Every structure is written in C-alpha cells, then in structure tokens.
C-alpha cells in the first residue's frame, strides 16, 4: 500500500477521534481566532470579537489592532496583562460583558486610547487610572451601579490627564455628579436616569465649555433645573435635555446665580486652561506644517 495514502488515512482517523472526545460546544483557540473579524474602517485595523462567549481578553490577536470590539461576551475580570500586547488600541468596546473588577495597571499600556465603552457591566466604580490616560476623549460607563464612585473619587489626582470631551454616566445610581476637577474640553455629559436629588449651577463651573447636558429622568428640584437650564442658555449651550416646569418660578424664590458662576475662580481657571490648550494645539500644527513644507522643499531641490 502507498505509504502516503496510509499517512493520510491515519491523520483522518486521529482527527475524527479527537473531535469525538471533545465536549459538546468546545471551541478551540484557532476557531475563536477565525470568528474574530478583521476589518479596516478608515484604514484602522479593527478586530471584532462580538458575542463569542469569551471569558477573558483573547491574547492571540494581531498586536497592531487599533479598534478592539469585545462586546456581548462573558468577561468578568480585566487583568493587568489583558492589554499589554495591544498598545495601539484607540477604541476599546467592552459593552455588555459581566466585568466586576479591574486589576490596577490594566489600562496603563493604552496611552493611545481615545474612546472606551464599559457600559452595561457590573462595575461599582470607575478605575481611577482611566482618568489619567493622556489621549482619552470619550468615556462610556452608563448602566453600571457605581455605588463606590464618590468614595473612590476622594483620592482622585486632579487635574486629570485625560482630555475628556464626552462623558456618559447615565443610569449609574448616582446621587451627585462625579467631581473630576476642571474639565476644560468637556462639551457633553449624559447624567440621565440617575437619582440625582440636587444640582447647583456652581457644580458646572469646572465644565466651562459644556455644550449639551442630559438631565432627563432625574430627581432634581424644579428650581435647580430652571437654574441649570438658564445657565446653559447663558453660556450658549443647549438646554434641550434639561426638563423644566411649564411655569417659570419666581426669581425671588429661584434666583439666577449664573453671573457668580462665570465670574468664579473655578470657571475662569477652566477657561484659561481651555485657551492654553488651543494655543498649544495651534503651535503643534504650525510646527507640523512647517516641518512638512521643509521636507517637501528638500525633495523638490533634489
């Protein structure tokens, strides 16, 4: 008999026996990797491991991934080494997992991270190291019961390093807005569906560039909502999602405090930081354009 044919027959027999010995529903590492989709939207490498019953962050993906989608899995814990291989991630989606705990240092390697979605998990706080990520602009932590957040924020180092522009803390069981210090770039915050009981305009002084705010389905008093609504309009922001009473409350009972707010030290400090950021950004672009023109000029001369 042909030895080649015998070898093929033996290999087939071993494969069949191995599959029969595997428990029903077993999915090997290679099969998992095949299920993850490799895409390139906007020239960025996106890996989509959506709804794969994963219990931890897979370590066999391409390390150059820039968008990692791990939504709808069964991950309960993020470990220190979960993202050590994936330092190029810009967008991280962990929506609808079962994340309960995050080891210290988990997000430290993600210095390029611009957006993270941790919504619909089992978190009781936000890992404070997230607020020190130097590129983070968008943070979604909605639909987590953040009972320990106020306590943990007492030791938060401020000003935070993350240049936050969008923050979603909707449906998190919050009684107060989280105090993250001065946020000169924050333009949108969603705090809806929280048992917020009171909110003063002074609280918004550290969000001097706020453009829209969602306070629907909260327990904030009519007076406080009216004050916030008028304050947002005063600074040129949208008050569309700040519900108010049909009848304006008398100014003697519910005075407008926004003049004191915009003249406060906190507000002025926030504005100063925002202007400084604009100047630095303009200088960076000027230097980048000058360098590009210099390179182009050198090539033309050659």
Strand order across the largest sheet = 1-2-3-5-7-8-9-10-11
Given helix and strand content, the structural type is: alpha/beta
CA-to-CA gap between the ends? 70 Å
Overall pLDDT metric: 86
Helical segment tally?
6
* CATH topology heading of one domain: Leucine-rich repeat, LRR (right-handed beta-alpha superhelix)
How many strand elements? Answer: 11
Please tell me what the overall shape is: globular
Secondary-structure element series: HHEEEEEEEEHEEEHHH
Low-confidence stretches: 13-34
Q: Give the C-alpha Rg.
A: 26 Å
Largest sheet: 9 strands, mixed
Residue fraction in strands: 5-15%
- Specify the helix fraction band: 25-40%
Q: Tell me the CATH architecture of one domain.
A: Alpha-Beta Horseshoe
Note down, in words, how this protein is organized:
- With 302 residues, the protein is of the alpha/beta class.
- The chain has a domain at 163-302: Leucine-rich repeat, LRR (right-handed beta-alpha superhelix) (Alpha-Beta Horseshoe), CATH 3.80.10.
- Helices cover 28% and strands 10% of the residues.
- The protein is built from six helices and eleven strands.
- The chain has a nine-stranded mixed beta sheet with strand order 1-2-3-5-7-8-9-10-11. The chain has a two-stranded parallel ribbon with strand order 4-6.
- The longest helix has 37 residues, at 265-301.
